[in-house]
Structure formats: structure tokens, C-alpha cells
Amino acid sequence: LQVPRAPSQPAAGSESRRFANKHSKKALKASLTLGILLGMFFVAWLPFFVTNVTQAVCACVPASFFDVLTWLGYCNSTMNPIIYPLFMRDFKRAMGKYLPCCRRSGEPRPSVISLSMRNSNSGPRAATSLKNVL
Fold this sequence. Notes:
- The chain crosses the membrane at residues 27-48, 68-87.
- The chain is mainly α and 134 residues long.
- The protein has a domain at 18-98.
- 74% of the residues lie in helices and 0% in strands.
- The radius of gyration is 26 Å and the shape is elongated.
- The model has no long low-confidence stretch (mean pLDDT 75).
């Protein structure tokens, strides 16, 4: 015994599949970005922390080697601004909007006033003086 389907069911099903597919692609991309960032963090800082513990136990690590591992960890901070724009479109747009070196030609430059208003989380305020406050 088969129940006939309403004509709207296949369209709703295909739209929900399309939404699920789009959502899964975004989740996969976010997972990939997070995996790369964490992987870079562990590659950069794990040798430093292992060497730091070893140095505390036996004091057998040369100072120059310890300095190299410290700078390897610092290089991780340099990699983040490179990794984020490669994998995150929103981050790339924000950098292009506010940094002159990353702005495309023809895009308007945001004014200092609009940036300060946007960062202050408030609209224009009436001028307040000490007399009005007291």
C-alpha cells in the first residue's frame, strides 16, 4: 500500500537537503580552519614546552636552542594573520575594509568618526558638561 505524496513535499525535501549540504560545507570549512590553527599552535609551541620542562628537570638544554624554540613559538603569532584570510572570507573582507594595504581600488575609505562611532557601540550623544552632570 503506497500513500501518494503531495506536490510540495519533494520541493521542501530538496530545499532542506540543500540547506543541510550548505551547512555541512560551512561546518567542514570551520573545522578545517580550526584544525589548521590548532595544528600550527602545537607544532610551534609543543617543542618549547617540552624543552622547558626538560630544562627544569636536568638543566641540559643549550640556551641558543631554547631561544630558537622560543622564536618558533613567536612565529605562530605571525602565521595567524596569514591563515585567517586564507580560510575565512569574512576576515578577509574586514581586513580589506580597514587596512589600506588590503583595500581594493574603488572601495571608499571609512572615516575616523564612523570607526570610532562603530567601536563605541553607541550613537551620537548630546554634549555633556560638568555642570549638567552635577
